[in-house]
Amino acid sequence: MRNIKKFDEFTINEELSFSDLKEKFKLLLKRLGNLDSKSRMKIIRSFLISSLILFPISDIMEISKEIDSDLIKNEISKSIEDILKEKGFGNAMEMRLSQKGWDMIRDHEGYSSKAYKLGDGMITIGWGHAEPVSKSRYKVGEEISKIEANELLKIKIKKAADGVRRMFKQWEDEGKKVLITQDMFDSLVSIAFNAGVSGLRNSEIVQKMKMGEYEEAGELIKKFKT
Fold first, then answer.
1. Residues 6+ apart with CB under 8 A from 105
2. pTM metric for this prediction
3. Which end of the chain is more exposed for a tag (fewer CB within 10 A), N or C?
4. What is the pLDDT of residues 45-88, one digit of tens each?
């Protein structure tokens, strides 16, 4: 096996531009030659870890699109996935709303044991549970217990969480695997809870996340208003 230390020259520094990074990566791939898969993966992984310190994941993914070899593309994709998992990213289809997520939604919604109207054509009660005035089972001023309010909350949150998981499943079926953190999942469920699953799907937040532009998506989540 060749000595992989000969590739140490491909280090990343703060002065490196994105175009320089692309050229450096292309040169690195040429130098990999006929290394065995294990050694090649180790070098690619080291390069990606260094790159991700200074560049967003979307940039690294953009670089991989320019590679002709499907084998190398797959190795890069696998390396990025492994790195993300080590940073706390996971499969959204396997996630459930965390206690932190539950508390966030409750705090945001506030609690009312009495049904009330806000002039939006809806009657609201409990933890932000809303129904059209014409179809609501509750009348203004009617009270419910916290147990019943929690049951209503569970139903709505399950619908929102299922919608988020279906979205990621659809992306994966289309060949686009996107990993996220638990905090990201909680935020997406909260948005789906307030804006509806279709509202979430059509948001710029989701489009950024789908492209791996996590920092941009995070900034949009902070600004999101329901």
1. 127, 128, 153, 157, 189, 190, 193
2. 0.73
3. N
4. 788 777 877 777 777 777 777 676 677 777 777 777 888 788 88
